[in-house]
Write a structure and sequence with these properties.
Length: 40
């Protein structure tokens, strides 16, 4: 049971870290597709 709870906690920590990292790396769609032929 202890290993299961530790695994769940590790998965949550990894997910939060990945969310924070991707939030900084990804750019908004308005900037990513800002060309002359695109209307958003």
């Amino acid at each position: 049971m202890k290993a299961f709870l530790l695994g769940c906690a590790a998965a949550i920590v990894i997910a939060i870290a990945a969310m924070a990292l991707l939030d900084q790396v990804q750019e908004p769609v308005a900037q990513a597709f800002a060309t002359t032929g695109v209307r958003l």
